Amino acid sequence: MALIKSISGIRGTIGGKPNDNLTPLDVVKFAAAYGSWLKTQANSKQKPTVVIGRDGRISGEMVQQIVVATLSGLGINVINTDYSTTPTVEMAVVNLNADGGIILTASHNPKEWNALKLLNNKGEFISGSEGETILQIAANDDFSFVTVDQLGSVTNNTQTLQNHINQIVAHPMVQVEAIATAAFKIVVDVVNSTGAIAVPALLDALGVKNYTVLHKEITGDFAHNPEPLPENLTDLSREVVKQHASLGIAVDPDVDRLCFVCEDGSMFGEEYTLVAVADYMLSIKKGNSVSNMSSTRALKDVTEKHGGAYYASAVGEVNVVNKMKTVEAVIGGEGNGGIIVPDLHYGRDALVGIALFLTHLALSKKSIRQLRNTYPDYFMSKNKITLDGGVDVKAIFEKIKTKYKNQPINTDDGLKIEFDTDWVHLRTSNTEPIIRIYAESNLASTADNIAKRLMTDIKEAMQA
């Protein structure tokens, strides 16, 4: 069991003892710390307002009730959207003129996990310095609750998802008529979470008439590992082939990650979700792109093809967003299937990703497999090593840095080592007690071998 306190929020497994797992006491403490910080940011208002939404996890209702009551006890008004998606809550903060937001989701983590993702008044993830302040408030129990006459109100809002979809449909690069005319047959895997509400509503709005939804019961008891990776999407792949569908779509539990399956059951590749959407957008609106340094170099190739410049950021949505703002990027995101369209909002959004991808596919007059074949082939090997308590990751990275001192090395976010046209990126996760090892090459075997070599190096350094 685990509890991870980071600058981006608090995440842990449900049950167990406080400070070791995500217990009700930990939820109260962190929600109170966030609310106390928010009150210092919204001092022009007598009572700040926070938008709350949750994915379909088993623990979601329990955690939601605790967070809502805690914020109310601080004198903060709460707009409760109940079942929602991460991008929907992000947009609702702005649309409802709220002062912040909390999304109750552990994203791609298994069902025993849950988390509080924290937003500012722009509907964006809080900054590193803001997160540090909140952690300090929580550590010191530096919060005070209001008297009975000052309790915050709680209102329910069931319109936020429809408002989100309306704004997507109205986006100038989303062409509903083209999508409807293409008459796609689609299979969707929503992994027993709130994508079961959001994705069908979006497809209906886009004029898609023929679609099937897998794992559509919102139980939080995920039918498979909820991370949208090839090994977890065998049901979707099989069903696409069985139904002779045009494509398959998979989202994660909070609907901020997106990937596709081709008509032959093969994977389009989560790394290429952003590549394809960027290719479409940059063909119309010239400009720059951003992804994190663990993402495929294919985005750089596509961006330069359209006359733009590509920039890499440290891993983490807030880092990608900050870099996008700095370079005025037209499109950005992460290679895990996260699409950020800044003229809609600065957050990963699988729903707008679906709309833009289907527009691109419809206008291309190609099958999804044919579209994938138009992009350069890079192969990424994604691996991880679980960390035991007390492991000195910094010392491990120093040993590896010394071993590969003759190679170009970037230390902005963990270690990224260049090998001619190949690369490997090592970094600790913000959401799990692991080291991630990502390697990319134009040959799958080479990428795997590089990753295996570095995993051996890590294990040897841990034992030294």
TrEMBL record:
InterPro entries: A-D-PHexomutase_a/b/a-I (IPR005844), A-D-PHexomutase_a/b/a-I/II/III (IPR016055), A-D-PHexomutase_a/b/a-II (IPR005845), A-D-PHexomutase_a/b/a-III (IPR005846), A-D-PHexomutase_C (IPR005843), A-D-PHexomutase_C_sf (IPR036900), A-D-PHexomutase_CS (IPR016066), Alpha-D-phosphohexomutase_SF (IPR005841)
Cofactor field: Mg(2+)
Matching NCBIfam families: Arch_GlmM (TIGR03990)
Domain Alpha-D-phosphohexomutase C-terminal: 403-454
MF GO annotations: phosphoglucosamine mutase activity
Keywords attached to this entry: Isomerase, Magnesium, Metal-binding, Phosphoprotein
Organism for this UniProt entry: Ferruginibacter yonginensis
Protein encoded by which gene: glmM
Keyword Magnesium: yes
Protein's recorded name: Phosphoglucosamine mutase
